[in-house]
Amino acid sequence: MKGVFVVGAGPAGMFAARQIALAGYETYIFNRDIRPGGLAQYGIYPLKIKMKSGLRKQFDQTLALANVHYFGHVQIGAAYDLSLADLEAFRPAAIVFASGAQGAKSLGLPGEDAHGIYASKDFVYNYNQLESHVPRDFSAHKRIAVIGVGNVAIDVARWLLLDKPAKYTESVVIVARRGPLEIKFDKKEIEHVEPHISRDELAAELERVKDRCAKANQDVSPEKVVATHFPHMNDPAFATIPPRLSFRFLSSPKAFVSNAEGRVTQMIVAENELVLKSDGATSARTTDATSAIEVDTVLFAIGDTHDPQIGLPMGPDGYATRPDANQPSAPSPNPTAPSFEVWDPAGGSVRPGQFVVGWARKASTGLAGLARHDGELGANKAIEFLKDAPDPNTFTEAEIRARLTATGLRIMDKQDLALLARAEEREGPITSPNSFHFIEEGAIFKVIDAERDRAAHTESTPEVAAD
Ligand SMILES: Cc1cc2nc3c(=O)[nH]c(=O)nc-3n(C[C@H](O)[C@H](O)[C@H](O)COP(=O)(O)OP(=O)(O)OC[C@H]3O[C@@H](n4cnc5c(N)ncnc54)[C@H](O)[C@@H]3O)c2cc1C
Ligand SMILES: NC(=O)c1ccc[n+]([C@@H]2O[C@H](COP(=O)([O-])OP(=O)(O)OC[C@H]3O[C@@H](n4cnc5c(N)ncnc54)[C@H](OP(=O)(O)O)[C@@H]3O)[C@@H](O)[C@H]2O)c1
After folding, report:
1. Shortest-distance Cα residue to atom 37 of ligand 1
2. Residue-level pLDDT at 466
3. Phi, psi at 162, each rounded to 5°
4. Continuous segment of H or E residues that includes residue 287
5. Best substitution site from 163, 177, 282 to test ligand 2's pocket, by max atoms within 8 Å of Cβ?
6. What Cα–Cα distance (Å) separates residue 281 from each residue in 122, 166, 301, 339?
7. Which ligand is nearest the CA of 156, by number?
8. Tens-digit pLDDT profile for the chain (467 aa)?
9. Which residue's CA is minimally distant from atom 18 of ligand 2?
10. Are 379 and 16 in contact (CB under 8 A)?
11. CATH classification code of 104-303
12. Is the sign of the CA dihedral 140, 144, 147, 153 positive or negative?
């Protein structure tokens, strides 16, 4: 039997699994988290309830396919539950890696390990109640700096300004290494926090950087910047409300100062020049001029990196993929063809039957719909490969389960997911902006065991597709 393994159950992995299962292969999903969804569940803003439940429904449809098997709470990697070699010992016909970008970019700055400094993804995992991140300290105090000016920065600012329970945020400053015309967030996201920005303060900041931007041929007049990025600021009724959200452009963090308790108290930022490159793009060049910003919390929202523990060969931009995806022999060569095949730079060859999709292929790139599309394209590549691949006689679901449980792992399978869903349903509607009743790992497994006992004594077990 040709079984296909998918590592990761975010949008890329779930839609890849669906495609592979529909092509008739037994499909085994190995997922670090107890529940499927990845960032679609634990990244997307808690109040985007319709989007999140729509995606969850689609993931449930995939899990309902009889030839899709789920091994949740199993992390693949040398230092984790199961190494890549352990996984390969189950003889998969192909493996699709959809593990996203789990590493945090570190700038290696002095003082960066002070308390109160976090990677935004970890912070977001915490407020979205990813079980591994719930018990950790992500305390955000009063004066918060967010580094980076993309949609993640706006999401965390929104949480801090509007929805953080027991909030007492006084101010959030978004620090951008380049200028206002290099803002990456979308208008529909800034909308949520726009009333917290002072028009006068923004104008003063634009005035502060205007000469440096002009050297890169940029007009950063308030009229232009507001028209480009801030949908409501020109409304006559626009009024600023506390707490305050401000921007600091052409600034890069350089070092952090902390107090006796080890909590960050100051961020030293360097002033940057804006450099116009020959291709029309801009870059930031740090100068010797610095200043200090008083902070007690700093969030890095500068993108993520790939986790090297998984065991895939690394290239300069993360997991290495075939450099010549656009093979000249292809019927219609496409110079921008995405490359899904895992590449071994040392041997100069592909790793046959191994593919990467979604954010595992390109870290921190695009929305859930793009990850879905990428997962499906990568799955098609795997399906193409499988047609001529020999049958390795892949372990069955029962054989894999037996091996995993023998090592002491507590697996989350489809039956467990159904039991958990039923227990949560009984608890009634959720009242917090988050999504689940049971968020602590021990409590989740306890409630599943209780639900299984209850089903054994009183009712039938919930319906799941037969394994
Ligand atoms: C804060 C934030 C907010 C976002 N908001 C939106 C939004 O509003 N709308 C939108 O469309 N998009 C949004 N996105 C983007 C969207 O979440 C991503 O495009 C998408 O989730 C990427 O999918 P993926 O499957 O490649 O990776 P992920 O979603 O990261 O999934 C990776 C999966 O792999 C698993 N995994 C990781 N490591 C291992 C391992 N070692 N072994 C086994 N399993 C592993 C994880 O548990 C996870 O299930 C947001 C992203 C972030 C960071
Ligand atoms: N609500 C939503 O729809 C939503 C929410 C969150 C995320 N997403 C999506 O998820 C993807 C990732 O989002 P993202 O915000 O992480 O990435 P992003 O949009 O690429 O923004 C990253 C920001 O970090 C800055 N940065 C990168 N490296 C830096 C460094 N070394 N020092 C200082 N600043 C640095 C970038 O500046 P430069 O421009 O100078 O590189 C940029 O401002 C995007 O596609 C985004 O749209 C969507």
Report:
1. 99
2. 47
3. -120, -40
4. strand 282-294
5. 177
6. 31, 42, 21, 25
7. 1
8. 999 999 999 999 999 999 999 999 999 999 999 999 999 999 999 999 999 999 999 999 999 999 999 999 999 999 999 999 999 999 999 999 999 999 988 899 999 999 999 999 999 999 999 999 999 999 999 999 999 999 999 999 999 999 998 778 999 999 999 999 999 999 999 999 999 999 999 999 999 999 999 999 999 999 999 999 999 999 999 999 999 999 999 999 999 999 999 999 999 999 999 999 999 999 999 999 999 999 999 999 999 999 999 999 998 889 999 998 766 555 566 667 899 999 999 999 999 999 999 999 999 999 999 999 999 999 999 999 999 999 999 999 999 999 999 999 999 999 999 999 999 999 888 777 677 889 999 999 999 999 999 988 886 666 665 44
9. 150
10. yes
11. 3.50.50.60
12. positive
Name the burial class of residue 99, with classes exposed (0-12), middle (13-18) and buried (19+) by CB atoms within 10 angstroms of its CB.
Answer: buried
Q: How far is the CA of 149 from the centre of ligand 2 (A)?
A: 6
- Ligand 1: nearest atom to the Cα of 75: 42
Domain boundaries, the chain: 3-102+306-412, 104-303
> Of ligand 2's atoms, which has the minimum distance to the CA of residue 365?
45
DSSP-derived pairing of the beta strands 117-119 and 68-72: unpaired
Helix boundaries (H) for 389-440:
397-406, 414-427
Residue nearest to atom 36 of ligand 2 (CA): 148
Q: At what angle do helices 199-214 and 222-229 cross, to 10 degrees?
A: 110
CATH of range 3-102+306-412; options 3.30.470.20, 3.40.50.720, 3.20.20.70, 1.10.150.530: 3.40.50.720
Query: Do 3-102+306-412 and 104-303 have matching folds?
Result: no
The amino acid at 102: Q
Sequence-ordered list of residues with C-beta below 8 angstroms from that of 64, at least 6 positions apart, any chain: 464, 465
Ligand nearest 101 Cα, by number?
1
pTM of the model: 0.96
* Atom from ligand 2 closest to the CA of residue 189: 1
Q: Where are the alpha helices (DSSP H) in 89-171?
A: 120-127, 151-158
Sign of the torsion angle spanned by Cα atoms 424, 426, 427, 432: positive
User: Taking each helix axis from N to C terminus, what angle separates 368-388 and 11-22, rounded to the nearest 10 degrees?
Assistant: 40
Q: How many angstroms is it from 335 CA to the middle of ligand 2?
A: 26
